[in-house]
Amino acid sequence: MRNILLLVTVFFFASYGVAFAATEEDVVARRAQLERDLAALEAEINNQTVFLEAKQNERVSLERDVAILDAQIEKAQLSIRARDLGIQKLTSDIGSKSSTITALDEKLVRERQSLANILRKTNEIDGHTLVEFVLASKDVSDFFADIDSFASIKASLRESFVEIEDTKAVTADERSALEVRRSEEQELRTLQVLERKKIEEQERERSEILRITKGEEAVYQQLISSIEKTAAQIRAELFTLRDSAAIPFGEALEYANRASEETGVRAALILGILKQETKLGEYLGTGTYTVDMHPSRDVPVFLKITEALGLDPRQMPVSKQPGYGWGGAMGPAQFIPSTWACFGGFVQSATGKCNPIKGSYAGPWEYDASKDRIRQLLGKNSPGNPWENQDAFMASALLLKDNGAARGTYASERLAALRYFAGWGNAEKPAYAFYGDGVMGFAEEFQGLINQLGGS
Question: Among 24, 65, 220, 444, which residue has the least CB neighbours within 10 Å?
Fold first, then answer.
């Protein structure tokens, strides 16, 4: 018996001290290298951002426009490379966590087998009288030492099980979180590829301009003058909107100007946000609330919104669920229902507030016209409607204002756009830079058109 106990004891302490990282040093070294490479790329991306901001403040010229296009393309390529490194790092981390869970599972099996053996031996002891064991033992002191060893090892194994189960649960949670992040990174990389394609189209346009002008500034300025549109053409040009029919640019500008007057947010930025959301919508597609919307956070208030508006929730378009989170965003401004609640006057009955109680969005929800910011600002006789164009413009401007866009600087507007898309916690992460850059690019284009119209 003493030999059996000795073997079990040695096995227990050897297995308990196993470090599940035969290649841990390699994993750590690889992760550190990826982090260094990623930091270097992010520094280059930041340099390109600073360069672009400076160039966009210069007078329009052939050299300036060519430099901007080159910098935009370079920045997009750097961003995609950075995303690749980020995905590699996450994949490595997920693999490491998976190996740890597998090792923990195997250890649990081994220790359960060991405990079963000990329990069988214990049952043998329990099945005989103390006198029988004493008479059968050559050494009474060995007998009592065996009994003490059994009790000690059983207690240690129980402690080990608790620790392993806790570690396994934590590791599984970490792996799940990493997988979500990897999906998010992959989705964002795809979006960045689309942004690069747009820039590459601009590059082809640039090449055509250079072919025509042969690099001559005077010819370029003549070309710009010749292709400038008349005010009538600008106003008649259609402005496309997410989940809504296109409207003339003149009408869109009226909505943006009205929203700008109420919020102090630049009209061109409002137009830029709506254009960017529409572009993303063309890629992501349209979903339904039953499939794509967060079931506890958004569905209850979504049903209340559609009820207040007299709409069939099954017929209303919402954004499709992307690979990195929930969909369910509504209308041209793409507000999720739980965010629209704080702009459209929807509150929880228990508190009279739109914010959740300890994360609970279940409601019940009710509509309070006095807290409907959209309705109040537009002087409507009905609830704010996320699918109505003018309401969407006003809601977009309000959220941008809340995000700091009314300061009017390039940096504040870009950050407000990023907060619009990714929230305050993620706004300054490099992964989301493409969105802010895209909005600011569109805003510059629209500001040019507004300037041509004389600021009207």
Answer: 24
CATH number at residue 271: 1.10.530
**Residue 120: pLDDT above 90?**
no
pLDDT at 106 over 70: yes
Query: Which string of DSSP letters, residue by residue, matches 273-304?
Result: HHHHHHHHHHHH-EE-HHHHB-TTTTHHHHHH
Answer whether the bond into residue 337 is a cis peptide, omega within 30°.
Answer: no
Quote the percentage of the chain above a pLDDT of 90. Answer: 34
Q: Which residue has the higher pLDDT, 3 or 144?
A: 144
Task: Name the band, by pLDDT with cuts 50, 70 and 90, for residue 313.
Answer: very high
CA 188, CA 182: separation in Å to the nearest integer?
Answer: 10
Q: Does 73 share its domain with 203?
A: yes
Residues 32 and 170 in one domain: yes
Can you read off the two tokens belonging to residue 40?
A: 């270097």
- 3-state helix vs strand vs coil in the chain, percent to 5: 75, 5, 20
Quick check: is 219 in a domain?
no
d(CA 68, CA 57): 11
* Domain boundaries, position 70: 2-213
Q: What is the CA radius of gyration of the chain?
A: 32
Is residue 142 situated within a structural domain? Answer: yes
The answer to which of 79-88, 219-228, 381-390 has the lowest mean pLDDT is 219-228
What pLDDT band is residue 118 in, cutting at 50, 70 and 90? Answer: low
406 phi and psi angles, rounded to 5 deg: -70, -10
Q: Contact 175/101 with Cβ under 8 angstroms?
A: yes
Task: Mention every residue, 6+ apart, whose C-beta is less than 8 A from residue 292.
Answer: 318, 319, 320, 321, 326, 327, 328
Last residue of a domain, one of 213, 244, 268: 213
More confident residue, 6 or 342: 342
